[in-house]
Amino acid sequence: MNKFKFENLIIWQKAMDLGEEIDVLTASFPDKEKYNLSSQIRRAADSIASNISEGSIGQSNPEQKKFIGYAIRSLAEVVTCLYKSRNRNYLTIAQFDNLYEKSYDEYDDRI
């Protein structure tokens, strides 16, 4: 089976995993956050992988850099939402630390 170029990118695979993990965790957030924080962090996390894939498909180098920039901004948004989630006691310290480390590793190692 043929694959798109981005499907072979480890950073895209990790971004997909991060999005799925955040989706599972936000399911336990209070109902009052359904359309606020939980929605915001899920959309930002999903945007990371989306921008990586969009930037990898037949674009020029400046175009690829633009979409990587969008992915980095989405990652920063995820980290901010992680802090808000921890501060509101929706995440344990261990959950926060785990997701923070995964987020930092994505930025530091790949993006």
TrEMBL record:
<dbReference type="InterPro" id="IPR036583">
    <property type="entry name" value="23S_rRNA_IVS_sf"/>
</dbReference>
<dbReference type="InterPro" id="IPR012657">
    <property type="entry name" value="23S_rRNA-intervening_sequence"/>
</dbReference>
<protein>
    <submittedName>
        <fullName>Four helix bundle protein</fullName>
    </submittedName>
</protein>
<dbReference type="Pfam" id="PF05635">
    <property type="entry name" value="23S_rRNA_IVP"/>
</dbReference>
